[in-house]
């Protein structure tokens, strides 16, 4: 563990991080078109959303196992296995024509991301000390956001040509392999110093926070495309443009995380996160035109730019080196279980109140969460 890592390692870890965001939002713009293409299937509008959420539930189920594998067999073998599975499963929609076969490919993608997330998170903890991690997380958050802009924009443009074309983007990580193979090294083994029970007691608040945050935040890629296409009569490229604009603010905010962390606690940053996120959702709930959606992007982007970086930094500050693989698996499981649960938990609200009604209700939940955290922090200091 050190205060710095060389540029090749840093770039390698950043490329791996962009694969996480690639796994989800790349095909967002295709969802309404997939619904139209396979309109003969019953409940296709709901089933098309599973293109995003099937990987999430697979990650949620497999990530703890992946974490045990990473602790037992090292970081790099699971990492490279994950990249190969990522390419095969992610690109399945490009060359398969059966809807359920494509869903199976999305499940393989979930296994791949579970291996990637657990091994890469463990590597960051192994390579860097706490202060250096805050700085790296700032850069990583920005890289993920910029990657999100690239992939969502490319996906939107390709979806206008054909719904299957965005799936070809998943072939891209093959070109990362030469750099990763030459840059990354296996960290040394660490001895056990803390019991599982003691560790779990410290980490459960982080796991629950990750789950709750993803239930709220993942409503954007699963619900916003339908608001834009069906309610506001936009184009698939509009979906990518709105989300990409939010990602710009995401990148700018993530880059400032180290400076924010030097001044504020983890709880204070969560309070800011939910205030910005709730404000952005309220603006979406009141929008009547596509142009009005863009007013929300600054608030949504700032909120999302903080939530993932803050949670990962909090996590790595708590978990010891010899348990990073297993604990990273449970954290990934929490994130993606929240993603998978998001449309299932929120769909009844959409059915009763509509999509904009959902955004209004979740806005209230986010702002109430910020208030509860603020009051809890004040009382704990007293």
Secondary-structure topology with pairs:
Blueprint lengths: L6 H19 L5 H7 L6 H30 L2 H15 L1 H4 L3 H29 L2 H32 L15 H7 L12 H22 L1 H13 L4 H19 L2 H7 L2 H20 L4 H4 L3 H22 L5 H58 L1
Structural description of this entry:
Its main location: membrane. Keywords: Cell membrane, Membrane, Transmembrane, Transmembrane helix. It is built from 16 helices and no strands. By secondary structure, it is mainly alpha-helical.
Distance between the termini: 37 Å
State the name of the first-level CATH class. Answer: Mainly Alpha
Question: Number of DSSP strands?
Answer: 0
Q: What Rg do the Cα atoms give?
A: 20 Å
Mean pLDDT, rounded to whole units? 85
* Topology pattern, helix = H, strand = E: HHHHHHHHHHHHHHHH
Bin the strand percentage. under 5%
Low-pLDDT stretches are none
CATH architecture grouping: Up-down Bundle
What is the CATH topology? Growth Hormone, Chain: A
Q: Which structural category fits the helices and strands?
A: mainly alpha
The major sheet is characterized as: none
CATH superfamily: MFS general substrate transporter like domains
Number of helices: 16
Shape: globular
Tally of separate domains: 1
Residue share in helices?
Answer: over 70%
Name its key features.
382 residues, Growth Hormone, Chain: A, globular, 81% helix
Summarize this entry quickly.
Keywords: Cell membrane, Membrane, Transmembrane, Transmembrane helix. The protein has 382 residues and is mainly α.
């Amino acid at each position: 563990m050190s205060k710095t890592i060389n540029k090749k390692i840093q770039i390698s870890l950043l490329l791996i991080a962009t694969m996480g965001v690639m796994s989800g939002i790349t095909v967002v713009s295709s969802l309404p078109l997939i619904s139209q293409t396979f309109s003969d299937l019953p409940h296709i509008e709901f089933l098309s959303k599973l293109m995003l959420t099937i990987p999430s539930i697979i990650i949620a189920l497999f990530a703890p196992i992946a974490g045990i594998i990473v602790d037992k067999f090292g970081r790099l073998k699971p990492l490279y296995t994950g990249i190969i599975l990522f390419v095969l499963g992610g690109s399945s929609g490009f060359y398969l024509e059966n809807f359920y076969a494509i869903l199976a490919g999305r499940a393989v993608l979930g296994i791949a991301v579970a291996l990637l997330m657990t091994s890469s998170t463990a590597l960051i903890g192994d390579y860097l000390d706490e202060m250096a991690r805050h700085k790296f997380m700032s850069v990583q958050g920005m890289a993920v956001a910029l990657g999100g802009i690239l992939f969502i924009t490319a996906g939107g443009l390709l979806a206008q040509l054909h719904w299957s074309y965005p799936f070809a983007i998943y072939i891209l990580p093959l070109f990362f392999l030469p750099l990763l193979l030459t840059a990354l090294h296996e960290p040394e083994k660490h001895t056990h110093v803390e019991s599982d029970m003691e560790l779990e007691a410290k980490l459960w608040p982080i796991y629950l926070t990750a789950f709750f945050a993803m239930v709220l935040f993942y409503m954007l890629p699963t619900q916003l495309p339908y608001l834009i296409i069906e309610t506001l009569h936009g184009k698939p490229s509009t979906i990518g443009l709105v989300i990409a604009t939010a990602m710009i603010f995401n990148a700018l905010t993530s880059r400032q995380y180290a400076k924010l962390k030097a001044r504020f606690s983890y709880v204070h940053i969560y309070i800011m996160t939910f205030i910005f996120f709730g404000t952005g959702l309220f603006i979406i709930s009141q929008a009547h035109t596509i142009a009005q959606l863009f007013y929300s992007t600054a608030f949504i982007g700032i909120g999302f730019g903080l939530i993932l970086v803050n949670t990962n930094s909090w996590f790595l500050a708590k978990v010891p080196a010899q348990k990073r693989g297993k604990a990273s698996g449970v954290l990934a499981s929490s994130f993606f279980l929240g993603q998978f649960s998001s449309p299932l938990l929120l769909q009844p609200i959409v059915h009763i109140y509509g999509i904009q009604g959902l955004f209004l209700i979740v806005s209230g939940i986010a702002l109430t969460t910020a208030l509860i955290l603020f009051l809890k922090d004040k009382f704990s200091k007293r």
